[in-house]
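Predict the assembly for these two chains.
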Amino acid sequence: MTLIAAFIIMPFAGILLIPFLKVYRRGIAAFVLLFINAIISGYFAVNGLVGEAFSYSLPGSFVTGEVPLRIDALSGWFMLIINLVFVTGGFYGLFYMKAYKAQQNNLTLHWISFLLQHAALIGICVIQNSFVFLIAWEILALASFIVIIFDHEHISTIKAGINYLIQAHFSIVFLMLGFLWVASKTGSYDFQAITTYSASIPASASFMLFIFFFIAFAIKAGFVPFHTWLPYAHPTAPSHVSGIMSGVIIKIGIFGILRMLLVVKTDFTMIGYLILIISLISGLYGVMLAIIQHNLKKLLAYHSIENIGIIGIGIGIGCIGIGSGNQLLATLGFAGALLHTLNHAVFKSLLFYTAGNVYQVTHTMDIEKLGGLIKKMPQTAALFLIAAIAICGIPPFNGFVSEFIIYIGLYNWLSDAKLVSLLAAIFSTAGLALIGGLALMCFTKAFGVVFLGTSRSKLPESYREVPFLQLLPMYILAVFIVLIGVFPVFFINLLSLPVSQFTGAVPFVPDPVRINAFSVLQPISLAAWLLILLSFVIFMFRKIIMGRRSIEKSPTWGCGYIAPTSRIQYTASSFVRTYSKLFAPFLQISKHEEEVHGIFPSESKYRTHPYDKLEKWLIDGPLKNYKSFMGRFIFLNNGKLQIYILYGVFFILAVLSIPFIYQNFDTFVEFLKHL
Amino acid sequence: MLSVLLIVIVSVFFTGIIFRTKSLASGRKGPGILQPVYDVVRLFRKGVVYSETTSFIFQIAPTIYFASVVMAMLVVPFGQSKGVLSFNGDFIFFAYVLALGKFFSIIAAMDTGSSFEGMGASREALYSMFAEPAFFILMGSLALLSGHTSFQEIFAALHIGSQISYALAALATFVILMIAMIESSRMPIDDPKTHLELTMIHEVMILDNSGFDLGLILTAGYLKFAVYGALIVNLFIGVIPLQYSIPAFFGFQFVIAVSIGLIESFMARFRMSHNPQFIVALTSVSLLIFFGVLLILQKFM
């Protein structure tokens, strides 16, 4: 109890304390408070994960009723992910925000919101009273809005922030509809009421109830077609916030979907297929758009959509496994999804922090202007490389482990007898393979263009590697990437309790299905070790041999051309040109071209702007129609105060007369008949 | 273990046979069959020249490329005998560990800052991306047919019985062979002996490599070809005892090498812009195999 009180007090302490500190201490104070909160919640989370589920009931008020706090293994897993990313992100942020120390008030607001964000996220994992849950959800939305618009002097930042705010509230509307539906029927805000209610209504109704929750959480998670806020919000936020948004805030959408799968009792097979289809589309569409982006952070943001898709594929096959009673499939699906949630949180936040380092020294995110950073920032480059290999799902790092589990799940699904599931399995496999190939293309492009070769524009004169303390949280994340890659068995065993919550198996009792499912990881671990060992041995051998050979330096072979400049390097656009031509039907790239005129070569220009085709159809189109429809009523908005007062009078009259008319409606009809 | 031994032996001769066939077909005597091995040994003895533009990536990339191919080789079985590593889903590991090598060879090419090497890198990334789904659908079909999910179990359980399954085996051979062509950058996707950097894929990516590193890359290339050849042979030798299957293995690899030599002598490379269509067509052939398997298992009811 005291610990819970302490947890709630910390953000308030932050609000009261941070504004009165010296500017360089504000971040540190926020970090210390955050760290204390992370330890408190981490203590409960670890207990939840090892099987000592925690349950406590806050008295609440007469509006909310009792507020049950329940920390089970699922909450525990997500709370640990949140804490890991927030602690590393907060520490990184201390250094990243140094450049903005002149903006004192802005920083105060930023750090307080950062603290609130963490408290709200943990709250969402814990609170099981729908009313209070919505309050936490709203705090998260508003706090995220404020941290996103830190750089609010740019109009694009404000636009991205408002875009996020509006879509976050769309999510809240759907969430509210779902909660109100249950609360109006049962009179209780407790999540357990949802379980009992959804079990008592017909399957089609409970499916609709789930759809409400699914849309709400899918907006947060960034599933296509609810993803359009994400590529704006992530790049405009400061880098540590981008890492956190991509690492955990979209994951809270995944948490919501998983929580609702536990809470709402409905037809799992149908939901499984729905999630699987949406996830495949998200995965493919996300990476297809990521490839053509010029802005490094936007590229990473689209990649988050792809990874949400991969997590969704895991959840989808898990649900189908539950629905069809295939325990092995359910175990593999949910284990893969939950592990990929951790994996993505780790390598995506690492990627955003490295992007932050790049921005800090070069002040640009346009990859066409970068190049050759590896020479002056070797550590940042190496960290980016590790995360890039991991995100492509390549061994020996962590991304491979979770994708491998999902693949195994899909291949095991092939033993199913039904034709529909066979087709779904084979197309999902092909989709996942294609996603992997596209991701490889995307990250070889990103790494190759940003860090390798030579600089494509004039970068600041003397940029250098960021200080070691700033790199420290990134190394911690990198260690996690490697550890999960080479010791997957340990991490998958941590997941046995959360997974058994879904499959209904008895946790910690040796369960043949789970043992069978997880046994595939032992050889993966061995293979990863072998790969690392083999590379190391060959490299050492090479080093010994090379010690005896002559080593020369010379310019890159230019195929006979002896005056190459950095401008003739392959650019990011040229690297993906064939791809963007082949995938043209799915992409929207506007081009502006000025050709060379006259006898002597004049300056020519070529610009491309990638845009989102779905956004054009789903957001821009309806918005335009809505605007033109509302434009018809613009005459009402004529600027005359007298008329406005008249509207007010009409409005009050209307409000007053509604109950009157409602009460006397029958009399009124009778009266009309009489006439 | 047996498979590794056989693959290494085959890789020694394989490229030499291709060269020899091409020489004979064009009316020359040509180098000895072991010439590619001599080339590699010579390269191992030479010093190296590094481009001034490159970083440590360029130096570690060939090592990791080579290691990835060796790791892929370790999971390939030979008929009933397992590979060094054999586990459920080892073919997923096979595809992804090769992707690791590809990743490094692509970024090593980008590291030189040369526009030609960037071009090769871009093509390599694109083509290997298209080849991926075909491989996974093929393995999915075989897994469905045999009810297993590891290379060795799948191959050991493959019984070539009915006429449909002969057709399937032929199609599967075609798919794996074409994937091998894409991965090893040979005709009709890529022409290793072209004289113009603009029209190369793999060769242009390693323009700046020299000495030991180039030797590693070449060796990895020889091994890769033999690895895919072993996969193809595995489709057929599941239940055949070793005294017949080993000669069959060598015979089959010899036939593949000679036919590659002949194809490269009498055929032109595809137009670069037609390559993607061709590779995507492989995916549909894989799907055809999948539907064939459904037909055999009588799932269309």
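Strands of chain B lie at 48-51. The first helix of chain B runs from residue 2 to 25.
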